[in-house]
Structures are given as structure tokens and as C-alpha cells.
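Async update (no meeting this week)

Hi team, since we skipped the sync, here's where things stand on the single-chain job. The sequence we agreed to prioritize is pasted below, unchanged from the tracker. I ran it this morning and attached the output directly underneath so nobody has to dig for it. Comments welcome in thread, and please keep replies under the output.
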Amino acid sequence: MTERRQRFEGWIAGVGTGSGARLVLGHWEGSPFGAFSDVMVEEADGRRTLLAPTAEVAAYVAATYRFEEVAVVPVLVTAAGPRWQVAAGPLRLEFTTGRRTLLGLLLRAVPVPLGRLPAWAALLDGPARLLPGVRTRGSAGGGSASGTAPTTCGGSPERGRPGGTGSWGRSLRSCRRSPSASAPHRAGPRWSG
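Output:
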């Protein structure tokens, strides 16, 4: 059977909040759906909501990951240097990233063609798993494999602690980095198949 790869090139940001919510932003410059951004909001009780810009994107992401609710809403993202702003339906989020870490600096030296290879993600997955919660390969759900070919992220944050504020129908209290969240990092091709 031939594996069909779909590439998503852009950034992934994970943010934990003082209220116990966790948010993951995908900001994709290139994908089979064109440029778009989407957000997963997981509340402290584990309820997950997908905020996607089109029905097509929502169907694709919801077929890959599990959500209790899916909403098609405009997802607007602006990034000016380390400052990011997100508006998606009832979500308002602002965060600022920290300085690039030593790992981030080292991974910037990875040649782009190498960083795009699934073999690169496979090679780095073993060492990445030595870090808590870090993976460069795994299951995307729905029976498909998924990987992030590390170019400047290596599956772990390339930047230091972000900070910020947000609301999701109520205040999310201050944003902080949690063990399962990371500052925005450049994601090489992300594929599923």
C-alpha cells in the first residue's frame, strides 16, 4: 500500500493557562487546504473544542483527532516578532514568546531538505522521547500515522517561556507554559497518512 503524505508547513504553539485550559494553535503557511490557522481548546475537565476556518478543514482535523465540539469560525492570527494574537469565535488569546533556546539555535542549522524528510523525524524521535512529553512521530488518530519533521523545533520548544492572557467566554487567567505546551516553533512538514 502506498502511503499518501500531506504536508503542513508552518508553526505550532501550545499554551497552558492558569484556569487549567490548554490551547494548541496550528498556523499553516502551506497545506493541502492553502494557508490557514486552527485552534484546539482543551478545558480543565478534558473537553476539547476545535476552532477551524472552513468546513473542509474542520472535517479533516476532526477525522484525525478527537473533539467533543467542532466550530467553523473565522480564525485570525497575527504575529509580530515574539507577540502573537489569536481571535477565533469566542477565543481571544495574546502571548509573547521568549528567547530562542540553545536547542532552537542548534536546530536552525539543519538544512531544509534534510528537515523535510520523514526519516529525519524518525531519527530524532528516540532522543526526543528522553524529554517529557516530546515526540516527533506517532499516531494522529483515526488510524493514521503523523510526524513533525523537525527543522527548528526538534519536537520541543525552540523558545523560552511565553506569557500572555486570554479569554474563552471567561478569563483563562494568565497563560503559562505547561509540560504539554510549547512556544511557537517552526514546524517542518507535518504529514499524515
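Quick observations from my side:
The CA atoms of residues 14 and 181 lie 4 Å apart.
The mean pLDDT is 75.
Reply here if anything looks off.
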